[in-house]
Each structure stands twice: as structure tokens, then as C-alpha cells.
Amino acid sequence: MIAVTGSLLRRQSPLASATEQVRILESTLSVPPFTTRLERAGLPGLTATGIDVMQINVGRLCNQTCAHCHVDAGPDRTEVMTQATVDSCLRVLAATDIPTVDITGGAPELNPEFRYLVIEARRLGRHVIDRCNITILGQRGQEDLAEFLAEQNVEIVASLPYYQERETDRQRGHGVFNRSIDGLLTLNALGYGRKGSGLTLNLVYNPVGAFLPAPQKSLEADFRRQLHRKHGIVFNNLFAITNMPISRYLEFLLDSGNYEAYMSRLLTAFNSAAVAGVMCRTMISIGHDGRLYDCDFNQMLDRPIGFGAPAHIDAFDLAALSGRRIVTGRHCYGCTAGAGSSCGGVTIPA
Amino acid sequence: MHTYYNPADLARFGEMAEGSPELWEKFMAWYGAVFAEGALTEREKALIALGVSHAVQCPYCIEAYTQACLEKGSNLEQMTEAVHVASAIRGGASLVHGVQMKNALQKIEMP
User: Is the Cβ of A307 closer than 8 Å to some Cβ of chain B?
Assistant: First the structure.
């Protein structure tokens, strides 16, 4: 897996089209439709049980072009959420008691409304998560970003696919590992990841290649030991996340001849016990244009909320959305493999 | 082109149940127990298996345990060291038989 030089869109790849991705996924006949596998396990179709997390994707603009990115984000992407849509999200927050706001991108900090969203969500008393690629902290114009996040007591979920340079740079681009280490040291200096500081720093691992994550606890122990020993870095938790077979990771799987085997691997590892904890059941995902989705992956596959539930932030209806049926597809096997996978790591504790 | 080793054959391993399903089931139960967490971790067992795969030069096993090692959390450095351990034992096993050569030599050459 080698970091790519541009987004699928910029390279005019057929995979830039969500329709083409869905066509490939849904014509993978060696793997049954996700709903069929649920039925065989004696499970009903997925439904939401409430909304604990409002995950807002504020845009696809990013300072990196990672090889596995499910958003197809990059410096060439222009989609960013406007202040009007941010205000719609804030109105919904004010009218509900959704406890957590999870901000993602792209590099969400590059959206001009990012700090406004954080400040207002915190003013409403909500827990705020920033899905941060860490290198953004060293970007020109972002020199005060780390302090801002600390002042607002924002939880940082930082991408670091491995504790070594070789693997990290293969996925995220040359030089990213060393710049990530610098960013983590900056966060540690502010108290992030340190006991008693109240500032949470969680790391995200995902496999650099066509394989599933190792057990989260054992990876966390490796990361904790190696990052501290070599760099003096501390953190709170490590989330192990399975790569979804969509967007640029799908491109990697297809180009490397690993697609069929990976899909079979996800199917073989299907764990019916992981179904109950999939994140779509307790979250709502909002696109940069205000459209609603069951998760960020459905958002990137352009599969909005269905079954008659409101599909735009301006039509938000908590009661209707809290018990909605969830739109699924073969990519959903990525969240039910092994110990399960979500934006918060495994869904079945060790 | 036909070759003795076909990567697709790895997925057909289960066909070995035909002809002797009882022995296959016993093998699979034993195999599963061997690789379960015990006094050694699953990660350590996968690394041992990777090394042995190279010692017995089984391409199916090498493919399977390369994937398994990654999915148990090992990295390239650790896996390469496991292959070197296997190689050192193979090389050492040849070299230590040089003592046999010396024994034979002592027997047949003049004192």
C-alpha cells in the first residue's frame, strides 16, 4: 500500500463515482447481501436505537491524500460545510439532548467554520470530538490549533496507523510519521493523554494493507510501549478500525488483486455478536451539504437515510430518526468482522 | 499454465475431509486448540508457524501465516526475524552434521 498522489476525483478515476463503487460492491456475488447474512444469523434488519452521536462531516478538503481514505479527501477537494449548514446543526443540537458532536472530514480544521462549530457546541454543553490527522497541527495558519482544542476541552481522535515510520508513511504519505510524532508531542505538552488533565487523546490504528486489525488491546499495548519508549508519547486509548472496502481503499484492493480475498475475509470473520453494537444504530451522520446518512461510509457511497425518514438536517425529526431503519450494503461487513469496528474501535470488548 | 502449486488450492484445503471426515475433524479440532491462546499468545504461535512454514517450505502455509501474523499484530521486522530463526536452524542443522563427516573421516583416514 503506497500513499497516492491525488484524489480519485482529481485522477478522474471511475471509482470517484459512488455509483460505480456501489455497483462493484453489490455485484460481488461470492459474498451474500448483508441483509441475507443477517437473516441466516437469525437477526432482523438494522434499526437505530437512538442518537447519541451527531457526526458532522464538515468537508472533504484535507492536507493529506492517504491511500486508504474512504472520503477520497485531499488538497484538491473543495466541498466544505457552510456556516448556514453549521447553524442548522447547532439548532438541532440546541433542540435535542444529543450528548456528543463528532467532527470529521477531510481535515475538519480546514473548514473556516470549524472553530465556530466547536465553540457553539461546547457552549451547549456537548462533548466534542475532533477526528484529527495530527499533521494539521503543524500546518501554516494552524499554529494555535492545539491550544484552541485544549481550551475547549475537545477530545482528539488522532489517526496513526502504526507506531513505525515505514507503515505509517506507506498509508499516509512521505514524512507523515515524523510530523505526526511532532504533533503528538505538542498535544502531550498541553496535557493531552496525561492522567488527571481531563484532555483525552485517542489514537486510531487501521491496517496498512489487505488484512484485518489485530486485537485492539494487544495493539494498544504495543503502541503504548513503543511510542513511549522511542518518543516519550502518551495517549489514552487506541481504537482499531477495520478498513472499509470503499473509495481509495477499494481502489487499492482492486489494483493489488486483493478485492475478492478481502471481501471473503470480511464474510468469514462475520460475527453476529458484533451486529448489535454497530455505530449506525446510535448515531446520525451529516454531510457537508446537510444531508443525513446512517454513517460516514454510507455518506461516501451517496446512500442517504431511507425508508421515509427525514434525510436533511433542516427536516430533522428526532423521534422519526431515532428508530429508523438503516440502509445497508456489502460494505457493512467491514463493521461486523471479528470484534466489530466503529469510529470508537471494536464494538465487542475483549 | 499448470504448476504443482496453485494459490487457489489453499481455499480447497477442506476437501481433505472427503475420504476420511473423522480424521479431518480430529485434525481441525487439534489444530484449532494448538493455535488458541495458551502459555504462548496467539501472536507468538503465528510467528512460530511462519518460521516453521519456511523451514518446511510450504507456500500455502507461508501465505496463510503471513496474513495471520499481520492480523495478530506482528510487523515486517518481527516476521523477518522469525524467518531468520527458521533459516538459522536449517543452516545450523546442515552445519552440525559436519561432525558426522568428521566422524566418518576419522574412521577411514590414517591416523
Answer: no
Buried b (16+ CB within 10 A) or exposed e, A262-279: bbebbbebbeeebbebbb
CB contact under 8 A, A162 and B76: no
pTM over 0.95? The answer is no
Question: Thinking of the domain B13-108, which architecture would CATH place it in?
Answer: Up-down Bundle (1.20)
Q: B61 and B53 in contact (C-beta within 8 Å)?
A: yes
- Write out chain B residues lying below 8 Å of A207, CB-based: 70
Which residue of A222, A243, A256, A260 to mutate against B (max B Cβ within 10 Å)?
Answer: A222
Strand-pair partners of A47: A325
Look-up: residue for cell 513511549?
A228
Confidence of residue A1 (pLDDT cuts 50, 70, 90): low
Tens digit of pLDDT for each residue in B44-82?
999 999 999 999 999 999 999 999 999 999 999 999 999
Residue matched to cell numbers 518460521: B51
A216/chain B closest Cα distance in angstroms: 9
The rounded radius of gyration (Å) of the Cα atoms in chain A is 19
> Tell me, which fold does domain A14-336 have in CATH?
TIM Barrel (3.20.20)
Cβ of A214 and B76 within 8 Å? no
Domain boundaries, chain A: 14-336
> For A51, how many CA atoms within 13 A lie in the half-sphere containing its CB?
26
